[in-house]
Write a structure and sequence with these properties.
The structure holds two protein chains of two kinds.
Chain A: H1 7-23, H2 26-33, H3 40-53, H4 71-84, H5 92-104, H6 107-119, E1 124-127, E2 143-147, E3 150-161, E4 168-174, E5 185-191, E6 197-202, E7 211-222, E8 226-227, H7 233-242, H8 245-249, H9 251-267, H10 274-302, H11 308-333, H12 363-369, H13 380-392
Chain B: H1 7-23, H2 26-34, H3 40-48, H4 67-79, H5 86-99, H6 102-114, E1 119-121, E2 138-141, E3 146-156, E4 163-170, E5 173-180, E6 186-192, E7 198-213, H7 216-252, E8 254-255, E9 258-259, H8 264-289, H9 295-324, H10 334-346, H11 352-361
Parallel strand pairs in B: 1-4
Antiparallel strand pairs in B: 2-3, 3-7, 4-5, 5-7, 6-7, 8-9
The chains are: A alpha+beta, B alpha+beta.
């Protein structure tokens, strides 16, 4: 048992750190460190920088052009990016759909789709949830009917994050109503420029349109866009979700945001107040404990051991911590977090923020937005069901 | 980075578990509790396994092991709620090895390792609460030796121990002394504690004492930190067993015609217990892995760990009783004894609020496992 990274791992970290420092545009990291609004260009610009280096698909195996890093190297890369203030990689392409295409797609699909994902050129979206299918994802109704060499897709997807930028979308569609709901689902890749696709933004409580409804109205999709076998999509979707766990816990970002919380608390004069500082101290212990849990999962993965019973905890704890720091940042600003001025979240805004503390501008907005973290990616209640299964059978 | 146990560590775990399961049954423990909360026979059996000399180097007939082995052993003792304070032999072994003059080492370490001598830390004073720097006990240099005057509370097995490690101020500075229980001016008044183990109020009146070190605060902090890491590990063992008991009971107990483990409200509590158990286990690893770090880093790590463990212990203990229903509050059922063990461990070597304060006072701009 040893907490230290090996000399090779430490060198790896130093190399990543140097590269990120050289290649991450300062105006982007400035926005990230201060929670200012990121444009589509900001997000894609960083994605393409990583893509050019071959690191956008940083978790990909070598066979598909990835660096072939092990779980610890992946973690170190993610940590260095997060601490440097890099935007989160938009996960839908490189982290979510790519592993499914690699595992279950055919050679033609791999050659067609993976390069655009690896380079960051093509923006992917996720078409899973529907108005009637949230936690009960297997109940999806969006229908794909085979007609000759194409599917005709009709239905609606919901909560599609950043779908307004999406060029392609991977969808769970119903291809059969026979048997159990899980056995009639297929995994389909759909060009969002196809006739009949309509994207409508959903404005959330923070005033932003981060998510969308996506409507499919007699959309024609060539059968070669079906991943694997018809009616086996549920299996593929589960494979995808298993790739999401440490990513969604995102302890690295929480470490960075804990530092920001301390800065804000100092600016607001509440860091010296033990009642407030103790709340930060509690969060600090939460973050360290989560990091230890993540390291245990990574170490197990590196040595090929099963860590399923603890990996299920990561999403619950990670999301709770994200909500808590956003809450404490807002409470640190107190009533000066009340003004909700959308423009003040833009970099370079020259207006006067009430009280003069421009750092207060995004705090409420982030707090509002982060209510999502315990809901998406399998609600925390669903996660508890999964954890309970490991304890009670 | 590696969280696996070596083959030797696994064998050590197996040996201790076997002794706990076969040699330290609930019935035997119950008898020991009734007899006062300390069994010398049981302590000697721990010594026979080599465990009392775990932190003592081979030069002094110990095993020369370290924090990870200590953690493994304490987890297993926790499973069986062992009353005898083995962690005190870790503390005495490590502190004497690290701080005492050679003469003291040669005369005490082999006896500690063999179990012939139980040496315990007598540091708590009524007015100091958990603050290690506050000390009313005083030491005076006599002709060649020292004498110590003190009242130390809640000394583990204090009326059974052979000697005490006692912090006392000497010329305005904290020093650490060794005082034998048989020495003149020493009296110990014992009582049972929450978990059935034993403690004593130890009074020293000009008792002859050997100086362990003039660097008393550093030695005391080290002693307490070993105690914290051991307590964290012990608590993980207790919680792990509590979790198992609770899951078994939920699958066995039927109400409304079905096992109560089928109810989602209860399943989610079990999931929350599992969360606390694994966060606690993670932070127990963290504590033991940081035990040999430089003092400031070590102290900060112990505070973080004990804060997490304290909260986890209370949560797991309370939920376990609740999920058991009526049977959970009976003395007859083993679960209530795990509850009391966890309650006591939260308040051992600093409770959760104390350690929250420590974390808060030590907070830096950056944080994390490696910060």
């Amino acid at each position: 048992m040893d907490l230290a990274f090996t000399p090779e791992e430490q060198q790896f970290r130093a190399d990543i750190r140097a590269w990120v420092r050289e290649n991450l545009p300062a105006e982007i990291s400035h926005k990230v460190h201060n929670a200012m609004r990121l444009s589509r260009d900001d997000m894609q610009r960083w994605g393409k920088i990583l893509g050019k280096k071959g690191w956008l698909g940083h978790a990909w195996p070598k066979a598909f052009g990835g660096p072939g890093w092990n779980s610890v190297q992946k973690h170190l890369f993610e940590e260095e990016c997060a601490l440097a203030g890099a935007p989160r990689v938009i996960p839908f392409g490189p982290i979510m759909v790519a592993p499914v295409i690699m595992a279950f797609g055919n050679a033609a699909q791999q050659q067609r789709f993976l390069p655009g994902i690896a380079s960051g050129e093509v923006w992917w979206s996720q078409g899973y949830s529907e108005p009637g299918s949230g936690s009960d994802l297997a109940s999806v109704k969006c229908r794909a009917e085979r007609q000759g060499n194409k599917y005709i897709v009709n239905g609606q997807k919901a909560w599609t994050t950043l779908g307004q930028y999406g060029e392609w979308i991977f969808c769970l569609v119903r291809t059969s109503n026979e048997g159990k709901p899980q056995t009639g689902i297929s995994f389909l890749l759909i060009d969002m420029k196809s006739p009949g696709v309509t994207v409508r933004p959903t404005v959330l409580l923070d005033g932003e349109a981060e998510v969308n409804e996506v409507f499919f109205d007699d959309v024609e999709v060539p059968v070669e866009n079906l991943i694997g076998e018809e009616n086996k999509g549920w299996t593929y979707a589960k494979h995808l979700l298993s790739h999401e766990r440490t990513n969604i816990a995102d302890v690295n970002r929480s470490k960075r945001e804990l530092e920001r919380l301390k800065r804000i608390a100092k600016l607001e004069g509440v860091y010296a107040d033990t009642r407030f500082r103790d709340e930060i101290a509690k969060l600090e212990v939460d973050v360290v404990a989560l990091e230890m849990l993540v390291l245990r999962v990574l170490a197990a993965e590196k040595s090929g051991k099963n860590s399923l019973d603890i990996a299920g905890l990561l999403k619950i704890r990670g999301s709770e911590i994200q909500q808590r720091y956003s809450e404490l940042m807002m409470l640190a600003a107190g009533s000066f977090a009340l003004p909700l001025i959308q423009e003040a979240m833009e970099a370079g805004w020259q207006g006067n923020f009430p009280g003069g503390g421009t750092w207060c501008a995004p705090l409420a907005s982030t707090y509002f937005n982060f209510r999502k973290t315990t809901i998406y990616g399998g609600s925390n209640e669903v996660q508890r069901n999964i954890v309970a299964q490991t304890v009670l059978g | 980075m590696d969280f696996d146990f070596s083959d030797d560590q696994q064998q050590l775990r197996d040996a201790v578990r076997k002794w706990v399961d076969k040699g330290y049954t609930f019935e035997r423990r119950r008898t020991a509790v009734k007899a006062g909360g300390f069994s010398l026979d049981a302590y000697r059996e721990l010594a026979d396994l080599g465990l009392c000399g775990l932190y003592v180097t081979e030069q002094y007939a110990g095993m020369g092991m370290g924090p990870i082995e200590g953690m493994v052993v304490m987890e297993e003792l926790g499973r069986g709620m062992v009353l005898e304070p083995l962690n005190q032999s870790f503390i005495a072994g490590a502190v004497l090895s690290g701080y005492a003059p050679d003469a003291l080492k040669s005369s005490w370490l082999p006896k500690i390792a063999s179990g012939q001598a139980l040496v315990v830390l007598a540091y708590q004073e009524r007015a100091a609460r958990y603050q290690l720097g506050i000390c009313a006990a005083t030491a005076v240099k006599a002709a060649t030796e020292f004498t110590v005057t003190a009242v130390k509370s809640l000394v583990p097995a204090g009326d059974q121990a052979d000697a005490f490690m006692v912090p006392a101020t000497l010329d305005g500075k904290l020093a650490l002394f060794l005082v034998e229980r048989s020495a003149a001016g020493v009296s110990a008044s014992g009582c049972g504690t929450q978990d059935g183990s034993r403690a004593a109020e130890v009074t020293l009146k000009n008792a002859p004492a050997s100086l362990i070190t003039l660097d008393g605060l550093a030695a005391l902090e080290y002693a307490v930190d070993i105690g914290i890491a051991a307590t964290c590990a012990e608590a993980v063992g207790v919680m792990d067993k509590t979790m198992t008991l609770t899951a078994e009971y939920m699958n066995m107990r039927k109400q409304f015609g079905v096992a109560i483990s089928s109810f989602q409200a209860l399943r989610h509590r079990a999931a929350d217990m599992k969360m606390q158990l694994e966060l606690a286990r993670s932070m127990s690893y963290y504590a033991s892995l940081k035990l040999n770090a430089p003092a400031p880093e070590r102290r900060a790590a112990m505070a973080r760990a004990k804060y997490q463990l304290g909260n986890s212990m209370r949560f797991v203990a309370q939920q376990s009783v609740q999920l058991h229903g009526g049977i959970g509050v009976t003395d007859e059922y083993i679960g209530s004894h795990y509850f009391k063990k966890l309650t006591q461990l939260e308040m051992t070597f600093g409770d959760s609020l104390h350690h929250l304060g420590e974390v808060s006072d030590r907070m830096q701009d950056t944080a994390g496992v490696f910060a």
